[in-house]
UniProtKB/TrEMBL annotation:
Keywords: Cell inner membrane, Cell membrane, Membrane, Methylation, Transmembrane, Transmembrane helix. It is a single-pass membrane protein. One of its GO terms (cellular component) is plasma membrane. The chain crosses the membrane at residues 20-43. This is Type II secretion system protein H. Belongs to the GSP H family. InterPro entries: N_methyl_site (IPR012902), Pilin-like (IPR045584), T2SS_GspH (IPR022346).
Amino acid sequence: MPIWPIRRLKSEMRAPDAGFTLLEVLVVLVIVGLTISVAWATVRSKEPDLRMLSTQLATELNFARVSAIAENRSVAMIVDQSSRSLRSTSSRSGMHLPDAVRMTFSPLEGIGRASAGSGLVFFADGSSSGGAFKLSGGSHAVVVRVDWLSGAVTREEVRR
């Protein structure tokens, strides 16, 4: 046996198999997945969160109803389209809408008691003038209804 290193000819050396290892494929898939999730989050953040806003609106309405009962007087929820806000006559706080959200108020006609112009009134007995607030933006809308007899507040998602 010779003691010097054996040199192999290039023709004798085996070429590595062409292709990718499983680890390389997994790394690429993870990078693609992260890129897609960041892009999706960016697109979703441009649509307003109507569920959160409708929950906030329902909370404001329920608070006004409870205030009317507790204070034994009528409390109005006033919709101000110019400042894009909703406020109660019983508290200084209110709700401001983002630019991407549109809110419309539809009072009930001929049912319940008369409402105060561009808003809803809760009476001392817990009833209200009734009506519906529609929050719209993006691809869907949410309707928050106030029952005139009980003053109960309900929410409903509406697809366009």
